[in-house]
Amino acid sequence: MKQTFKAACIDTLPVLTGYLVLGFGFGMILRSAGYGILLAFLMSLLIYAGSMQYVAVGLLSGGASLITVALTTLMVNARHLFYGISMLEPYKGTGKKKPYLIFALTDETYSLLCTDNPAIPPEQKNHYRLFVSLLNHLYWVSGSVAGAVAGTLIPFNSEGIDFALTALFLTIFLEQWLSNKRHTPAVIGVAVSLLCLLLFGSEHFLIPAMLIMTLLLCLYREEAQHD
User: Fold this and answer.
1) pLDDT tens by residue, 97-130
2) pTM of the predicted structure, to 2 decimals
3) Helix residue ranges, H only, the chain
4) Cα–Cα distance, 127 to 223 (Å, whole number)
5) Of the candidates 113, 111, 144, which has an alpha carbon nearest to the alpha carbon of residue 126?
C-alpha cells in the first residue's frame, strides 16, 4: 500500500504544479469578484471542475439564470461524457470507491489513469486510482484556497490569469505528443477543433467537435487494431 501511494505521489507531481497554479488563479479571480475564501474552498471541494469554475465566476458575478448555468456547464464539461465511457471497465470492480472515482475524474486524472504504470501490481490498481484521484483533488483545493487567501491579503490585478488553464492543456498536449509515437489522435483533435471553431464559432464548437473526434478516433482505433 505504501509503495502504491508513493507511486501515485510521484506520478501526480506534474498535476501538482499545474493544479496549484490553476487553483491559485481561480481563487484570486473569485476573490477579486467579491467572493470569500469559504466559497473558493466549497466550490473546489464539491464542484471540482477547473475550467467550469473559472466560467462560474463570470456567471455568478453576472447574475446568470439557472438555465444558463446548466447549459453552460453541459457545454464546458461535455467532454467528460466521452472519455468517461472508456473508464467503465477499469472502474468496474472498485466497489465503494466508484462514486468518488467518477466524481474526481478530471482531464489530468484521466490522462494519468489511462497510462498503465507497470510498477503497480494488479491487486493494487484500484488503490492507485483512488490515491491519484484524491491527491489531484487535494492539490486543486489547496491551490484555490491559497489563491483566495492571497487575494484577500494582497491587492492583485487578475487580468490574464485565467490563461493558466490554457497553458496546462497545452502542456498536457505536448507531453502526450512527446511520449507517444503515434500522433494521429493528436492531429485529429487539433484539426477537428479548428474546423468546428470556424464552422460553429467559439461558443458552440465544443460538442460538435467532441462528437466528430469520437467518431474518427473510434474508426482510427479499429484500423490500428487491424494493423
Assistant:
1) 899 998 998 888 888 888 767 778 888 888 899 9
2) 0.72
3) 2-11, 13-32, 37-42, 50-62, 66-76, 79-85, 98-103, 107-114, 125-153, 163-179, 184-200, 206-226
4) 34
5) 113
